[in-house]
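Same chain as my last thread, 84 residues:
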Amino acid sequence: MEFQLHVGWTDQGQHEVAASVNVGCWCETDHGTHDVDVLKFVVGDEISLPQAFEACAERMTGWLSDPHDADFWRAREDVPARRM
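reply #2:
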């Protein structure tokens, strides 16, 4: 399980800010990881880069107060749990 905060570029050359919660994949076909919660903003007329970054950082702070158990996040998004 990991939390990510990413600032990058869209294909249209605009800044994009994204925060996400990722969990390891336990599907029959290994996808590597699954994004189980994502907040994403494209910077432009609606939101500035600092506003987008602040919103994503705030959301990440909220996620950090949620359970630190990947199975909690898998259940929320109906992603397969680890096979025993």
